[in-house]
Design a protein that fits this description.
- The complex is a heterotrimer.
- Chain A is mainly α.
- Chain A has 14 helices and no strands.
- In chain A, helix 3 packs across helix 13, helix 5 packs antiparallel against helix 6 and helix 5 packs antiparallel against helix 10.
- The N terminus of chain A is likely disordered.
- Chain B is an all-alpha fold.
- Chain C is α+β, with helices and mostly antiparallel strands.
- Helix content of chain C is 30%, strand content 17%.
- In chain C, 52% of the residues are buried.
- The N terminus of chain C is likely disordered.
- The chains are: A mainly alpha, B mainly alpha, C alpha+beta.
Chain lengths: 303, 316, 592
């Protein structure tokens, strides 16, 4: 009873319900870049989900001419809006399907990385002492490896496939995330609510879930928004080194590094379109992340 | 203060030991081994030959014995011999390290040269056209995959100007012009990306500092704006920027790998890549220990400087 | 705000995306009998027009280079990444610039229509005689000196060096297969050696001509502190001046080299060679355009075309390949279903070789059978046809499916197809095309790229591959039937030469008959073996593109035209010369 009263008096004031609806307009006006990027991202997700419906051709099909030979390296024209690649496959369809892989890699790897990082950070920060020391040494060890080398070693050992690529990128993200979470936990651990809850006899996990976790969301979301764009670029880089998703699955990174590189002069569109796709999507993620961070970070809000 | 430094150093050493153990086991779990990898365009090796070659290189001994031998060597400064070229690892690494450090420092200079002024302008004239332009450029800089940029640049430079960076690396104190010619474009590519990150941090750190009470006081006292920004605000804004540089250093070194491969630069990054591909265990171990030592060292420096600036941390 | 960004939304999005992965029209369902996609499209069938253009602009045979050759200059060549320049550590074709073997292939041998029997050029050995098929005597050239560098100081090469080298290298990677045939090397006098062989071999000189033959090394250099790595001394045309690991190497002319050209001028003409280690063809092309390298071997017509467009004064040598770099699929012959000949035939019939030609090299390629056409007696290029290959090599997916059903796989089966990158060759594209053709007949194929080193190990049989492997010629093949067919098909050959391991008693019989037959009868037996292998389809061969060699306008090869495949001769360095239009380059150290 008393603790509830205490909480309601000192809890962060929530906005009264009726004002949450019209905030969308305010948001758009205040953060136009963020709104645009949100639209782009929704479009991206829609493309990925609706790929079989939108794509004009099957991305794996060798399109043949009347002589039964592949229509190779056609520049963009009415029939193939983004041209064809060295096997006669439609580039536009491959880019549309490529959105799937990029999004899946992006979201899943960031999800895994931030989840793992959060868990480690929470445990480490809440129960300080030897667990903290041990975990932090582990994190330091992981962070001492340059990302590419770690990815190379792990993928060579466990084989090259989409799930492994996702896990590896998650592995790269987790240590950094855990450090941020730990920092937040350390700073929040001794505020009055936590002390009060502990005094009231709440169990550790309850405290973590109810009091600490909500404070951790904001930094985690900020990290996630930063890494979403990065994860896609890392996947492209891994494909470039020959470690990414194996062919013939269309991925933007693979398209960029394989034929894109080889035929850069005769068929520049093979590299331009996947490169643009990656850049626009990463740009959108970055802008969105910026907007999220600006909105969430109370210190910067006041201007 | 000293206790803090000592404690952090010991932790760093512990981390290095863990790293050495990790990489030692990791490379040995890679499928295939160095002997098999030496077979490109080579012919028959019977099972006995393979066994003998492995024995020559000490690969048949038990795990802990190999590890012990290697660690003892490391503590004496001997990183072992490359399994592919039979030459000492430290000699090879030494040459490569010079190039990568050149590249990293040049990239850092480029990044700082761009990021700090743009960050300051963006912060001081907040929410104006200049601010938005600066931030937009930064975001765009972050969005292009750098290996793509590198490939495009190198291809079209060769086509349009028939020019390629000179081969054959010389350190900057031997032949500065050639060195800069060779490293300028790769450093620019890496540095541009880094500058985007740094610029945003500079801007936000400066904005935060400019809201502090003592800045308001200084303004009230009548100090000129430029003095305030450059003398007082910037110094305090440096702290998060320095921390960020420390964190980004590993990204810097890692990003150098791909650029080194594309521009044919013989740096530690491409060495590591080749060595992993060839299962040259000793070389990989040596290179990774180098990276790890640099990272741990930089982290230590950053933490110590943090403690220097913020006395509260010293007593943790 | 909290509501807007509650984690629930995040998880919903993630779950949604997870679902979309499951709801992908799986590849197996993708349509694709290639016959149904006959949409008429305006497609410039570039290949014949382009090839005609190439034939006109770069006629064959190439014009005789001007004479006399101009001495001096520094040649820049691209090469693969060498980790060391030391024959005792590993083999590389560039080592032939510094160390010689007893014999070499004559470089005029490149055109199957002109030459059906490979010609040998005498290098360190001047003549030889057979005492009996297991005993051979070689007479060494007199006056051949090692490089005039400590600790060898330019002393003469003698028979003892030959004995020492063969002894030393017989267990080393790269040379052991050739040296294994030799039981003992005896020194009869300072310029004569006698070889005692393990098995009778009437063609033993061919053993020395393969570039994997042991090179001749001086004992003092090998046994000095630091070994050959520190003292890379041999008898070759060039001396290694600097090895810049990861970047390249600098070699300078050996002023005492024994070989002379036809007019008696001493070789080599140039002062130095700089090797650049390049990892891929795109970088090489950029270097070529910037005139940093003087020669390039573009692996595909696409790349060649790009190069010629941007370097219009370059010269092209375009030579039909004997069979090197033919695109092949190896199968695990020891596993089901590949041990069933019907399955192998079906897989071969599933591949549309015209499409492969088009995809890989814009149509500029020849069909290729189980081994080089010329070794089966077909000397005219018109003979390289589907008719002469038979039904197993024709595109026939219907019959392929039938064969699979007969063999017990009416619903196909699943395989993994592995491949590795090789400096610009279109392996990846080939793998994608092959996988697609296999899918069309119901063989579900998963493509897996492996490290180049692992892939090489698989090609050489040092490491097993899973089911199928994209590969080239049987490794180590020289232009002789012995190298190309006998060794890679005989069951007694070690798995590193006979990869994947073929064990066929009837084939062994035929091969042994060939080996012991007198020279005039061998061609007939070769044709028999050809017919047999066409039926068995142990390795699924498809096409072979020509060799392309592009050189800068200021580079000429000497009296001996050129070497089109560095693995088997070193003439590029030895007989090349540069006109005065070549860029002025220094050669004190590798870094210019």
């Amino acid at each position: 009873m008393q603790s509830e009263k205490l909480q309601s008096q000192t809890a962060t004031p929530q906005q009264p319900r009726q004002r949450t609806r019209p905030r969308w307009r305010v948001l758009i006006r205040r953060k136009p870049l963020g709104a645009i990027s949100a639209v782009i991202l929704c479009g991206l997700i829609a493309t990925a989900v609706l790929a079989p419906v939108i794509a004009p051709y099957d991305p794996y099909r060798f399109n043949l001419n009347e002589r039964g030979l592949p229509i190779r390296l056609q520049p963009p024209d009415a029939k193939f809006l983004f041209g064809t690649d060295t096997h006669g496959r439609d580039v536009l369809s491959r880019i549309i399907y490529g959105a799937r892989v990029s999004l899946i890699v992006g979201f899943l790897s960031v999800a895994i990385g931030t989840l793992a990082g959060t868990l480690i950070g929470l445990v480490s920060g809440y129960w300080e002492g030897s667990i903290d020391q041990a975990l932090q040494r582990l994190v330091d060890t992981l962070m001492a490896f340059p990302g590419i080398v770690l990815a190379l070693a792990v993928l060579s050992v466990f084989g090259q496939s989409l799930p492994n690529v996702i896990l590896v990128i998650g592995l790269v993200i987790a240590p950094g995330a855990s450090r941020v979470v730990r920092g937040t936990v350390l700073s929040v651990k001794h505020n009055i609510y936590v002390d009060a809850a502990r005094a009231a006899g709440a169990s550790s996990w309850r405290i973590i879930l109810r009091h600490i976790l909500p404070n951790v969301f904001a930094p985690i979301l900020i990290i996630a928004s930063v890494w979403l764009g990065n994860a896609i670029v890392i996947e492209a880089a891994l494909s470039f080194l020959g470690l990414g998703t194996p062919p013939p699955t269309p991925t933007w990174g693979g398209m960029l590094s394989g034929e894109g590189r080889r035929s850069l002069e005769t068929a520049p569109y093979l590299a331009i379109f996947p490169g643009l796709a990656i850049s626009i999507v990463v740009l959108a993620f970055n802008m969105f992340g910026d907007a999220v961070r600006d909105l969430l970070d109370p210190r910067l809000r006041t201007h | 203060m000293w206790i803090y430094i000592v404690r952090r150093t010991l932790q760093g050493v512990l981390v290095l030991c863990l790293v050495s153990l990790t990489i030692f086991s990791l490379v040995r779990s890679l499928p295939g081994d160095a002997i098999i990898m030496q077979l490109d365009q080579a012919a028959a090796l019977s099972k006995e030959d393979l066994a003998r070659a492995r024995q020559e290189l000490g690969l048949d001994r038990p795990f802990w014995q190999q590890y012990g031998i290697w660690i003892r060597g490391v503590l004496h400064g001997d990183l072992g011999h490359s399994l592919t070229s039979r030459k000492p690892v430290s000699a090879e690494l030494g040459k490569r390290v010079t190039l990568t450090l050149h590249l990293a420092i040049l990239a850092l200079c480029v990044a700082l040269l761009i990021a700090i002024p743009v960050g300051i302008i963006s912060a001081v004239w907040q929410d104006t056209v200049m601010d938005y332009t600066g931030r937009l450029c930064a975001i765009i800089g972050l969005s292009f995959p750098d290996f793509w940029l590198a490939t495009v640049i190198i291809t079209f430079m060769a086509i349009w100007w028939r020019w390629m960076p000179p081969m054959g690396f010389e350190p900057i104190w031997v032949d500065p012009v050639k060195c800069l010619e060779q490293l300028f474009i790769p450093a620019l590519i890496i540095g541009a990306r880094l500058s985007a990150v740094l610029m945003r941090m500079t801007r936000s750190a400066l904005l935060e500092v400019l809201r502090e009470d003592y800045v308001r006081t200084a303004r009230a006292k009548g100090l000129r704006e430029r003095v305030i920004i450059l003398k007082h605000a910037l110094k305090n804004a440096c702290i998060p920027v320095v921390t960020l540089i420390g964190q980004q250093f590993s990204v810097l070194l890692g990003g150098a790998v791909i650029v080194e491969v594309i521009f044919l630069l013989p740096g530690v990054g491409s060495l590591t890549l080749d060595a992993v591909m060839l299962r040259d265990y000793t070389m990989v171990q040596g290179a990774v220990m180098f990276f790890a030592t640099v990272m741990v060292g930089i982290n230590l420096l950053v933490d110590v400087s943090y403690a220097w600036f913020d006395p509260r941390i010293r007593y943790r | 705000m909290q509501r807007l960004l509650c984690p629930g939304i995040y998880f919903v999005v993630v779950a949604f995306l997870g679902l979309t992965t499951i709801w992908t029209p799986a590849r197996a369902q993708s349509p694709s009998s290639t016959t149904e996609q006959q949409e008429p499209t305006a497609f410039a069938y570039a290949a014949p027009a382009l090839i005609k253009e190439l034939d006109t602009k770069y006629p064959f045979p190439p014009p005789v280079p001007p004479s006399p050759p101009r001495p001096g200059g520094v040649l820049h060549l691209p090469s693969g990444v060498l980790r060391s320049f030391d024959p005792t550590v590993g083999w590389a074709s560039e080592l032939a610039l510094v160390w010689d073997t007893l014999l070499e292939w004559e470089s005029t041998w490149y055109f199957p229509e002109a030459q059906t029997k490979p010609m040998i050029r005498k290098s360190l050995a001047e003549s030889w005689e057979m005492v009996d098929p297991s005993t051979w005597i070689f007479h060494l050239r007199k006056g051949v000196k090692f490089h005039n560098v400590p600790p060898v100081h330019g002393r003469e090469m003698v028979a003892e060096d030959v004995r020492y080298s063969y002894e030393l290298l017989k267990n080393k990677t790269g040379y052991s297969s050739r040296a294994a045939a030799i039981k003992e090397v005896q020194v009869l006098d300072p310029h004569t050696v006698r070889f005692h062989l393990n098995l009778p071999d009437p063609n033993f000189p061919l053993n020395h001509v393969n570039s994997f033959s042991p090179v001749i090394l001086p004992k003092e250099a090998v046994e000095a502190e630091g070994g050959l790595g520190k003292y890379p001394i041999g008898t070759g045309a060039f001396m290694l001046k600097e090895f810049a690991s990861g970047e390249g190497a600098l070699l300078v002319k050996n002023p005492d080299y024994f070989m002379r050209d036809q007019e008696g001028r001493q070789l080599p003409y140039i002062d130095a060679i700089r090797l650049f280690f390049t990892r891929d063809a795109a970088t090489e092309a950029a270097l070529f355009r910037a005139r940093r390298v003087d020669l390039m071997r573009p692996p595909t017509l696409d790349m060649l075309y790009e190069l010629l467009k941007t370097v219009p004064d370059a010269w092209l040598y375009r030579v039909p390949s004997l069979g090197w770099l033919n695109y092949t699929v190896y199968l695990r012959l020891d596993k089901a279903p590949f041990n069933d000949v019907r399955v192998r035939r079906a897989l071969s019939m599933a591949i549309n070789r015209d499409i492969v030609k088009e995809t890989i090299n814009r149509g500029d390629a020849s069909l290729y059978g189980p081994f080089p056409w010329v070794q089966a007696g077909y000397t005219r290029r018109d003979d390289y046809s589907y008719a002469n290959l038979g039904p197993n090599y024709a595109y026939n997916p219907t019959q392929a499916k039938q064969l699979l059903a007969e063999a017990g796989y009416p619903n196909g089966f699943e395989i993994t197809l592995e491949w590795g990158e090789l400096r610009g060759a279109a392996n990846g594209d080939f793998a994608v095309a092959v996988a697609k053709f296999f899918e069309d007949i119901g063989v579900r194929t998963k493509i897996k790229q492996v490290d180049t080193s692992i892939w090489t190990a698989m090609r050489w049989g040092a490491q097993p591959f899973t089911d199928a492997l994209i590969s080239f010629t049987p490794p180590g093949s020289g232009p002789s039937f012995m190298d190309w067919v006998y060794l890679p098909h005989h069951s007694t050959s070690p798995p590193t030469v006979n990869a994947p391991h073929i064990e066929d008693a009837k084939l062994d019989e035929l091969l042994d008959a060939w080996r012991l037959a007198p020279a005039e009868q061998q061609l007939a037996i070769q044709k028999q073996i050809w017919d047999y292998l066409r039926e068995q389809v142990y390795r699924i061969t498809t096409i072979v593109p020509p060799h392309y060699r592009v050189t800068q306008a200021y580079l000429h090869a000497g009296g001996v035209p050129y070497c089109w495949f560095t693995g088997f001769c070193s003439y590029e360095g030895k007989t090349a010369w540069l006109t005065d239009k070549a860029p002025k380059r220094k050669f004190e150290k590798f870094a210019q």
